[in-house]
Structure formats: structure tokens, C-alpha cells
């Protein structure tokens, strides 16, 4: 058995810790929302505020969470 076979067998049998996935989703959604809101503020379509970033992060989090549950 090669190393690749052993890794594939171990990775396919592990579901991982859902708390880590949720934490990663929160962080990445927040960073992406901040980037989107910053870009919108550059073109004058939205103001860069914590409320706008939080709203975008919540929407992105909910969307990615719902998609990954399927």
C-alpha cells in the first residue's frame, strides 16, 4: 500500500469537526463581505460600515451553510 492510498483511505473516512468548518465559514464570509463592501464603497454604491459588512457576512454565511447542507 502506498502513501497515497493510505491518505485517501484516512481522508475519506473522516468527517472532520463541524465547529472548525463553521469557524472557517464565519472568517471567510466576513473577509469576503468586507472586500465586497469595500469595492462597493470605492465605486460609490455603498458605504463601508461595520453594519454593512456584518450584514453581508451573515448573508454569505447563511448562503454557504445552506448550500453545504445538501
TrEMBL record:
Transmembrane segments: 20-43, 50-68
Record-annotated DUF8107 domain positions: 2-68
One Pfam family matching this protein: DUF8107
Family annotation (InterPro entries): DUF8107
UniProtKB keywords: Membrane, Transmembrane, Transmembrane helix
Species whose genome carries this gene: Haloarcula amylolytica JCM 13557
Official protein name in the record: DUF8107 domain-containing protein
Amino acid at each position: 500500500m502506498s502513501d497515497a492510498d493510505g491518505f485517501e483511505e484516512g481522508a475519506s473516512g473522516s468527517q472532520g469537526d463541524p465547529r472548525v468548518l463553521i469557524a472557517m465559514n464565519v472568517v471567510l464570509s466576513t473577509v469576503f463581505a468586507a472586500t465586497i463592501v469595500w469595492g462597493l464603497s470605492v465605486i460609490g454604491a455603498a458605504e463601508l460600515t461595520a453594519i454593512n459588512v456584518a450584514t453581508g457576512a451573515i448573508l454569505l454565511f447563511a448562503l454557504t451553510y445552506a448550500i453545504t447542507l445538501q
